[in-house]
Amino acid sequence: MPTEQKHAVDIRGLAPLLQVFDMPASLHFYRDIMGFEVAAKSDDGEGDKVYWVLMKHGNVEFMLNEMYECDRRPSLPDEQRTRAHYDTSIYFGCSNVDAAYKHFTAKGVDLKEPVITKYNFWAIYVKDPDGYLLVFHWPVG
Predict the structure, then answer these.
(1) What is d(CA 33, CA 85) in angstroms, rounded to the nearest whole number?
(2) 49-105 confidence digits (pLDDT tens)
(3) Which of 27, 60, 90, 100 sits at a 20 to 30 Å CA gap from 137?
(4) What does CATH list as the number for 13-69?
């Protein structure tokens, strides 16, 4: 029986935090289109008008946090602040890339057809409302 390697820090998961401009728009995208569930949320507002949420889908989780306090939010996103979003990619292991592509296009998401990546994964690329790149991929064969 293989011996389990012990680490000084016992890490059990990962939950990235994404700063978003418009929480209701982000919740619509991640919950209603992508199928994530709201597992927890701040108690500062009603319905989708909250500043923080924990999203879950199976064993995957991440958090969304509004960039601005509601009384300080500009009418449009600050391009300098959100520019770094284009450099952020989140990869999801997705064994049914073709079905995900059909699901997202049926929901009105603008994306290109699946491709085989340079690292030999079948993948689709989706941008969320804030410009974060989401990649749904699975090894070919």
Answers:
(1) 20
(2) 899 999 999 999 999 999 877 667 667 666 766 677 678 899 999 999 999 999 999
(3) 27
(4) 3.10.180.10
pLDDT digits over 71-82, tens only?
A: 676 676 667 666
Q: What is the DSSP letter of 77?
A: -
pTM value is 0.84
| Alpha-carbon distance values, 16 to 19, 35, 47, 88, 123 (Å) | 10, 18, 23, 11, 21
All structural domains of the chain with their residue ranges: 13-69, 87-141
Range 64-72 contact pairs with CB under 8 angstroms and sequence separation of 24 or more: 64/17, 64/18, 64/20, 64/23, 64/26, 64/27, 64/30, 65/17, 65/18, 65/19, 65/20, 66/19, 66/20, 66/21, 66/22, 66/23, 67/19, 67/20, 67/21, 68/21, 70/45
Residue 83, SS3 per DSSP: helix
